[in-house]
Amino acid sequence: MKPFRYEQPADVTSAITMMRDEPHAAYLAGGTNLVDLMKVEVATPDVLIDIRTLTSKQIEDLPDGGLRIGAAVSNSEIAADRRVRRNYSMLSQAILAGASYQLRNWATAGGNLLQRTRCSYFQDVEMPCNKREPGTGCSALQGHHRDLAIIGHSPSCVATFPSDMAVPLAALNAVVRVQGLDGERMIPLTDFHRLPEDTPDRDNVLERGELITAIDLPAFSAPSAYRKVRDRASYAFALVSVAASLEIADGVIKDVRIALGGMAHKPWRAWEAERMLRSLAPTVDHFQVAAEAELAQAQPLRDNGFKVPLARNVIVRMLSDLANITEVGQ
Ligand SMILES: Cc1cc2nc3c(=O)[nH]c(=O)nc-3n(C[C@H](O)[C@H](O)[C@H](O)COP(=O)(O)OP(=O)(O)OC[C@H]3O[C@@H](n4cnc5c(N)ncnc54)[C@H](O)[C@@H]3O)c2cc1C
Ligand code: SF4
To answer: According to the UniProt entry, where is the signal peptide (predicted)?
Structure first.
């Protein structure tokens, strides 16, 4: 492991200034992703700037009925929070579907949103990878890509974004609060992560030095759930995951939210399926047609075509469960 310096700035402004002045520095939060990548020399910072004590560790009520989650709140604390469990249950379920107790106790809200892809070639410095080393090529395109993207990928990169927590945050219209030297920015979660295009080395829209300070959740209380399909029951990343909520009034769908994980370089909000379902009766046929319309844009790779019917079936099953339909008949 490459030697590095460790700094503990006094406040957010000092941390951002330090990052501006150090060309090869990285922020350190829980370290559960960054330190692993340093051990295999995928990340090689000269300086670690510890920010874990600089941002809030509180989950606060917002005046509109929403919640503000400080960037340093642990994943476990978010999942266990009474207000999150009551009003945002898909978020609590998604966090509990990820990693392990020990990791969730240490991983932070901010760090979770910035974890790097689990593409095996990204983590192997011997292999070409445009995300790790721009211009070297994408080993996964013709190599092992069974667990990688089917939507929104490019010839430069077919990686997926691995976070479970980010999937319900996309469905909830969460907003990421970011502090830079020029002030604060509020970025909708659905615009925070990028598609790879020709620059897969950039996972998100953060500018250098910008620090996540909090995540705002708008008021929400519709019934919701998260389902994660993976190769083994624990300690594995999603092949496909779905965060969904459904609000029915007078026999028709008043509001529906669907976001997909394990499918793309970012949490994938199923805008088309949602648009089709609003104002329709909540039936299995409608769920199926909407899921298929959303997935029509999928472009599976050689070995991951199974994700298309898998995602469709999970969406239909989840919406049916939320609508209390027991006979899905797939
Ligand atoms: C074995 C294992 C299994 C896992 N399984 C899952 C899983 O199933 N599902 C899942 O979703 N996750 C899983 N994870 C990933 C885990 O959730 C992340 O490692 C964790 O959320 C990262 O948080 P952290 O605070 O430790 O971030 P760190 O590792 O400290 O940082 C990650 C990145 O974010 C940057 N950063 C951190 N905080 C900020 C901030 N406030 N502002 C700006 N930059 C910041 C750092 O510079 C770094 O680049 C797993 C991890 C491991 C090791
Ligand atoms: S899919 Fe992306 S992360 Fe994986 S090898 Fe290709 S460029 Fe690298």
So the answer is: none
